[in-house]
Fold each of these.
Amino acid sequence: MNIAKKAVFLSLVLASATFATKYEAESATLTGGSGIVNSAGVSGTGYVDMKEGNIAFENVTAESAGKYQLTIHYKAGEFKSNYIKVNGSTAATVDFNATTGWGDVSIVVTLKAGANNIAIEKFWGWISVDYIDVSPYQSVAFNLSAKPVTPNATESAVKLYSFLVENFGKKTISGIMTGDMSNYTKGADFKTHDDVKDIYTRSGKFPALVGLDFLFATGPKASESWYTEYTEKGISLAKDLWNKGGIPAFSWHWKDPLDEKDAFYIKSAAGSNEYTDFDFKTAFKSGTTEWNTESAAYKGIIADIDHIAEYFLELQKAGVAAIFRPLHEAGGLWFWWSINSGKEFAALYRLVFDRMVKEKGVRNLIWVYNPESKVVSDWDPGEEYYDVISIDIYNNDNDYSSNSGAFEKFKTATGAKKIIALTENGPIPDVKNMHDDEAVWSWWMPWYSTWSGKWPGQTANSVWKSNMADARVITIEDMPGWDKYKPSGSEQTTRMAEKLHFSERAVTTGIFDMKGQYMGLSEQGLPQGRYMIRKKVEGRTMFMPYKKK
């Protein structure tokens, strides 16, 4: 390292050290039973046992508004999870792994200039906290693939993937999950479904993405008329939705592949409902993740995968593409596909992909890996197996936080190479919060209102209206129509400006390449090429084309 580089490196180290600030837990505001433990051998005069209470660090100072790394120095006898709230809004649900002594966990939070309040609030509680440390954080650019992971994807799938990439970071696709199909008529307009109509009633607009479920497509009762009709209605709705320019998104609550129980929950999560004891480990050769193709478990798994593949092939024949989120909420201890190790889960996910794509010829899907936060890296099936990484987050009523902590964690875990989505939620993340926090989810999808669902009602109608009317949220009314849509690169029609023409009051909030990938906040250091610069001008967000020579 030459002298000049050493000087620059040293200045960066000193700058980082200057802005890193420690806040002692024993000086925080304690409520709900949390208490100070005076102790030697820790930072300051002691630490705080959280127990069933909360710890609020007041007057956490930031020199300027932006992203910061929050490090919590803690210890825990066993795994716990708690909320982090910044200035009253939920930033993240943080997992605290068991420690043998003191350890650290870090997340990224967004702070305003000046004083901030950072609180650790009870979800499980029962951790000890010595201090928190706050230091600057620099966002990195996304580097998304130009193509979906499916080899020789259909034209429709390429269009859908390109649409997701082009809008990621700039706009969020509105969605809603469907539940009851009783009042929906096969072949009818998707807008007549009760859950879709509910969003229109609340907001005055229809969502662009609609969630569907193969909930009744497999299992011991799958061949019964009511069950088959439910699935056929979902396929019919998907076709109409696509033809009207929308996006079908499928989940699969996969019931016992041996058809012994009409259930997907394991015993500890089922409550009074039926549960399954199915263990997919029995489909492996003992002590390995190599499939035992002669085992009953393997044959049951394959039969179900092939059955679902036929529905996707029906859509493929009709020119319809869809999003598919198999084995969802991976690592959550409630579904049978999450009871074993991450290595075994990854093998199962790859089997679903390989069987559908390479054996059955399903080429019209955008694939989603949907883990719980605590297993995001350890259970990853491999970046060649999914296009989107997603998380399910259910905030409390009227909590419209961006959940930026989870967004940044998933971004880091995937090396900023994947689209990030919120595939289940209660309240929607407010569009302003998402853009202020640079946590712009590709789409969000509240769970249904039918079957006595409460989730769309967790968002006030005024918030529904303001978000669905915002230019940064995509509704079905905003969709171009798949017959008209052309991915960027196939035909570039944007006329590029040579210089920026914003007023001095404009603030840059993001620079994106022509694939929609976030490149940072400054034109300095950008390679030559064409970009879109996002600016905030007098409360409005605007995009300006820019050509770097």
Amino acid sequence: MPNGMKRTVLLITVIFAAMMELIDSSIVNVALSHMSGNLGATLEDASWVITSYAIANVIIIPITSFLAARLGRRNYYIGSVMAFTLCSFLCGQATNIWMLVTFRFLQGIGGGALLSVSQAIVFELFPKEKQNVASALFGIGVFIGPTIGPTLGGYITEYYSWPWIFYINVPLGIIVASLCLLLLHEPLIKPRVGKVDWWGILLLAIGISSLQTVLERGETEDWFSTPYITWLSVIAGFALTIFVWWELQVAHPVVNLRVLRSKNLSIAAALTFISGIGLFSSVFLTPVFAQRLLGFTPTQTGLLLLPGAVLAILGLMVSARLLQRGLSPMYMITAGILCFGYFSWEMSRIDLDASADLLTFTLIWRAVGLAIITVPLTTLAVSSLPPAEIPQGAALNNMMRQLGGSFGIAMVNTYLANRTAQHRFDLVSNLALDNPATRARLDGYTHYLMGRGFNAPAAKHGALGLLDAVIGRQSSMLSFNDAYLAVGSVFVLALPLLLMARSAKKGKPAVIVSDH
């Protein structure tokens, strides 16, 4: 196989591996009720299937650079692909919920390398002057993975069964591992490896796992009214504070936080955290809204997202070309934030009569906005790092995206619950039986039910139930409006960070700033 062909095949392989890992971060969301019923577990217990994977991911992602240096990047990457594939098969074979949770955690440990190490490999395959193209290609996987995860999971669950959500990874993982065995080599520049920073690993595992559990379980457990959520919050704050202090003191840290001395990486990481909020929370909100309130099937929901995903791929490539031609990343990030803000504004005004065409068009703004942001942010994160530090910078940046996603979903979950209760209270407080409009609505429902064979008392009771259902739907609709607007506001409020990036080097585009 010619060298050019080998490079292309390896590039496609590692991007596909990263996309596969990100798909699995959201593919089970729509299958929890099937899992809980099939395995005889409560829905609350089944939700640990999501939580355990997220915890494992966020623990392992920041230390992938250390593990790749310690074990050899080729060995670590291929071993991670094989672990991810094996644990996917074991997840499908699980016979009880806690067996599934355990294998799902191990799957997340294996999947961590599929994101950060894949990104480092992609950047290594391109010369410095074409790093924007590398960012765009990797961004395709980053964007598409979480977007199609719930839809793919819904389709598989609807037409097959939930274990196939995991079995589908097995042949794909075998192909990825086989190609990497043939094509992947060790990097030319290898970071130095010192003694193992066991204290750093322990503090990171305790702090991140506690924080991730709080974010994933907080809303379900009513936050700080539950003792273990309170204790985990305290433990997370203490462990992560000590972790940062320790990593800056120790000679050979497991996570080299010193790379954050790069202003570009620090600013990109903050903005990547914000983009993670938008990417994952909008993927969480939209399928739930379309299926629960508008009655769309998982397949119909996927079709809503498809045009935006296609245009996003085009947007990623165009943004890479514009950056290569010298357009300031500040303009592109600003444009992307404004596009996402417009999407959020439009979704905050939508109602229960919204058509599929209207939703599809509105979701295009989301896709294009996030696509425009992805390339300059990914490039900005590693632009001022020497080659040996790129894997660590990429790992930290990816961790921030995952944490942003967890924070965003926790935020919108809590916000939805609070706003639904508030809107319900507001709507009910305006109802009165002596109100002509209320009376007319109840009479209409009563006559409708009597026409369906109900006697008068049953029809009157049923009319109250129908009115309550309408209030519930309207309350949910208004809360989704508020949630979209809140997420968009977070994006717009992040714009001042760009001023810091602009001033990093006398107003030059931040993408070419070098601190070394």
